[in-house]
Amino acid sequence: MRAIAARANENRPGLGIVMMLGAYFLFALVDTSVKWLVVGGLHAFQLAFMRYAGAFVISMGQILVTGGSFRHLKTDHLGLVLLRAFLLLSATVVNFFVLKYLPLTLTSAIMFSAPVIVCALSWPLLGERVGPVRWGAIVLGFVGVLIIVRPFSVDFQWLALLSVYNALSMALYSIITRKLSGKVAIETMQFYLGFTGAVTMLPFGVWFWQTPTSVAQWGFMLALGIWAWAGHELLTRAHGFAPTNTLMPFTYSFLLYLTASGYLVFAHVPDQMTIFGALVVVVSGLIIWSRERRSVAVRPAA
What we know:
Strand content: under 5%
Oligomer: single chain
Shape: globular
Order of helices and strands: HHHHHHHHHHHHH
Distance between the termini: 18 Å
């Protein structure tokens, strides 16, 4: 019956797409709010703690309100689950730090090289075959990143390399998630993600704490965890209504959201090289998506 229900849900791709767009809108709210807060004097470590602590409190409340059991938190893959949590946590902290100094469009454009890195690592780490077309798209994607970062230019900003680390961390995070899929419950991974982030960042959050000076700062800081949790909920549930290959192109809405918020909130207009590099990265990601979708379509049913 569950399998029938799952197939029925996957016949509602429109709802899945709307959820995907909503999820990335919430993630854009998080990044925009963090940039506004760190520019206003709050510390990145403090905000990272609030992001994970808020999400963890909501997850715990969800378990208690629904009468859920904590027995499902036991897993035979705890090491990978914790490594997955650390990768996302480290990417979050680094991202919150660089947002103070780099434009939203620059950080998001680099982050979108993560699917390209996933494809490049899928052969050595997952044993998945990567054909010449996808290897060409991988090379194209890295060329796009070089155009954005401009390592040999006088305008080079070394902090952009930290955003490249974020993309690598997110790629490894995605690969581990794929390996754990079907072996560890989503609720288990989400619990350990929130728990690891909150506990790890607690001492740093306390040490670097800067008391907000306005109601707006308090409001946006407290909202970080809510928006992050809600975004991940929508993202997870979206995959129950449409297959990944259908949803993947809509992840690029994040770049559009941040371009708009960067202009509206910070009056920042991305330069031509950043726009061109972002387009190159997006095209490479769409080529990979197209090839993967075609391979799934021709794969015989089990």
